[in-house]
Amino acid sequence: MKNAGKPRRFPTGDLARVAVFAALIAVLGLPGSVNVFGNLVPITLQTLGVMLAGVILGSWRAALAVAVLLVLVAAGLPLLAGGRGGLGVFAGPSAGFLVGWLPGAAVTGWLTERAGHRPGLTQLAGACLVGGVGVIYLFGIPVQALVTGMSLPAAALLSATFLPGDLIKALLAAAVARGAQRAYPDAVPAVHRDRTRSGEGR
User: Fold this and answer.
1) May I ask the CATH architecture of the domain 12-190?
2) pTM across the whole model
3) Domain limits, the chain
4) Any transmembrane segments, and where (predicted)?
5) For a Cys staple, 33 with which of 70, 81, 121, 150, CB 3.0–4.6 Å?
6) What is the pLDDT of residues 47-76, one digit of tens each?
7) Of 78, 93, 178, whose CA–CA distance to 128 is shortest?
């Protein structure tokens, strides 16, 4: 066991990727947000960044990128769509959706890693839909119902207005990731994972 007793170091390249995707999610908030049908939870492009992080970075790096962003938001930086930031956003109607970004990115990345070294467009889109939509809704809808005082079915029905846009974002994230992975194979999470493991064994 060559690495016994040696502390594992976080690769510099991974640090850079995590920072880039945390910044990307923040930048996707610059166009602002839209509230439709009286929904207090806004529609933003930032979930697109969460999906992209998952399908390109893989599970733990994507989750870390989201965690970095959420910590900065909690510290007061206005990095959410509409210039929102501070601890108050984690007590509002969208709090569950924000917290859901972290497991959503992780699940998206985990599913992508299981798709192997050449994930297809359908597999990537499926990972985005399950992690970047399903998991986030699983956290977001109950919290929205709790904070607003509406019933769970009513909150779910209101959140259904997000589905067409989220479907488009999932397809777009899958297409972008597929193009990036064809040009740069190390952008495939399973490839990066296996190369990292191989490097640790040398």
Assistant:
1) Orthogonal Bundle (1.10)
2) 0.89
3) 12-190
4) 12-30, 62-81, 87-112, 124-146, 152-172
5) 81
6) 999 999 999 999 999 999 999 999 999 999
7) 178
